[in-house]
Design brief:
The complex is a heterodimer of chains A (208) and B (192).
Chain A lengths: L1 E4 L6 H10 L4 E4 L10 E4 L5 H10 L2 H10 L4 E4 L1 H4 L4 E2 L14 E5 L10 E6 L1 E2 L15 E6 L1 E5 L5 E7 L1 E9 L2 E4 L7 H18 L1
Parallel strand pairs in A: 1-2, 1-3, 3-4, 4-13, 5-6
Antiparallel strand pairs in A: 6-10, 7-9, 8-11, 11-12, 12-13
Chain B lengths: L1 H11 L4 E3 L5 H9 L4 E4 L1 H5 L2 H10 L4 E11 L2 E6 L4 E6 H11 L3 E6 L11 H10 L4 E4 L5 H9 L5 E2 L3 H4 L5 H10 L8
Parallel strand pairs in B: 1-2, 2-3, 3-6, 6-7, 7-8
Antiparallel strand pairs in B: 3-4, 4-5
Helix pairs in contact in B: 5-6
The chains are: A alpha/beta (208), B alpha/beta (192).
């Protein structure tokens, strides 16, 4: 059973359907206690960083997510759910503190690149170095779907699982121990995205 | 409507933009929860430009697509029409696109009323003007009749993406045909 954290995020249904498509059993978790007993958790996200943090905190889910990650069970953050794992964000002069699971802050693409912001569309992954279980069966150079103006800058570069270039090179996903997170939307990335989610579900099953 | 969105979103696992008659942040939220990724607004944004801002603040700019129906009403003048192109608003198209983006629109779909349905090619002039005036992606719509039209609006019209309906619906071309052709013109496309 995978717990899907529901704090009102717009892409909940898409993530839910994609997880079911790859064979997961999913429990929508709107309250902290609904995460007890699940094998792995997914924190979806779309929209603004502060909204996400406030909504999580308001439902007691911020602490629950922190506790879940500490428990060592597999955790996947998507988009703003990825950004939420960092300490803070520059978005709209944000003052909300993120989960701080990873060190670093969430920054905006630089206007000087001349590229359009947000990045909306398909872009390529460069799978970096280590064997991240999320990318089993996925080739470096695969396209995934991005919709974002901000991205986290991890202090510890050893957590970077993939890099993507959009004017500048950024960490399009990270991985450390039981925690995975992607800036792109696997639930909207067709075959490649479904493969990634399948890998996550398999990783969770093996850990159980 | 919600049911249609849910059924489409449950199958496609790719980005889905929903538009048509959405008038409030609550309407937007309903569609997002049904599986939409982006919300497209047109007449409701013209009637209440602040809807762009409130939607962008709530869901992020990347979620808010402002769709603009523009018509060439006089030499060098394109005006914005609302209600499916039936009502004039008196607004100038480039100005409205800039205002929409300053309010938080993350993407513009620019439809040429003159070209729409003609299959005679996109309106390259207004597409280029809007695309060069805003810092967000512009999707060109209206007039696609063949593969060269698509390449022209991307290269000369400076659009970031092209929209077509008829040529796909009636099976003249597949999406794959278009991508293959655009790639030969040096335009980046994703192959699946």
């Amino acid at each position: 059973m995978i717990g899907l954290i529901d704090y009102g995020s717009g892409n909940l249904r898409s993530v839910h359907k994609a997880l079911v498509k790859v064979g997961a059993q999913v429990r929508i978790a709107q309250r902290p206690e609904e995460l007890t007993g699940v094998r792995a958790a997914v924190l979806p996200g779309v929209g603004a960083f502060d909204d996400c943090i406030q909504a999580l905190r308001g439902r007691g889910l911020l602490e629950a997510a922190r506790g879940f990650i500490k428990s060592g069970r597999p955790f996947l953050g998507i988009c703003v759910g990825y950004q939420a794992l960092f300490e803070k964000s520059e978005e709209f002069h944000s003052c909300a503190a993120g989960l701080g699971v990873f060190q670093g802050k969430v920054v905006r693409f630089s206007d000087s690149s001349g590229l359009k912001i947000p990045q909306i569309g398909w872009n390529q992954l460069e799978i970096v170095g280590r064997e991240c279980p999320l990318y089993r069966g996925i080739a470096s150079g695969s396209y995934v779907y991005f919709v974002h103006s901000f991205f986290p800058k991890p202090t510890d570069l050893s957590i970077v699982a993939t890099r993507t270039v959009y004017g500048e090179t950024f960490a399009s996903s990270v991985w450390r121990d039981n925690v995975f997170a992607t800036q792109f939307h696997p639930e909207k990335s067709q075959k490649v995205g479904l493969q990634l989610l399948r890998n996550f579900v398999e990783f969770a099953n093996q850990r159980a | 409507m919600v049911d249609v969105i849910e059924r489409a979103a449950d199958q496609c696992f790719m980005p889905l933009t929903v538009g048509g008659g959405l008038r409030s942040v609550k309407d937007m939220y309903t569609m997002l929860r049904a599986g939409a990724d982006k919300i497209s607004i047109n007449s409701s944004a013209l009637a209440n430009p602040d809807l762009i801002r409130s939607g962008a603040e709530k869901f992020g700019s990347q979620c808010i697509v402002v769709s603009i129906d523009a018509k060439n009403v006089a030499p060098e003048r394109w005006e914005v029409f609302s209600h499916g192109g039936r009502r004039t608003t008196g607004r100038e198209a480039v100005d409205w696109a800039k205002q929409a983006v300053s309010l938080g629109a993350g993407e513009i779909v620019l439809n040429s009323i003159d070209a729409d349905g003609t299959k005679a090619g996109f309106d390259l002039v207004i597409t280029k003007r809007v695309s060069e005036a805003v810092g967000v992606p512009v999707v060109a719509s209206g007039g696609a009749g063949n593969l060269d039209h698509m390449a022209a609006v991307l290269l000369e019209g400076k659009a970031d993406a092209v929209l077509a309906a008829s040529i796909f619906h009636f099976g003249e071309y597949t999406v794959g045909d278009v991508k293959k052709f655009l790639a030969t013109k040096g335009i980046p496309v994703r192959f699946v």
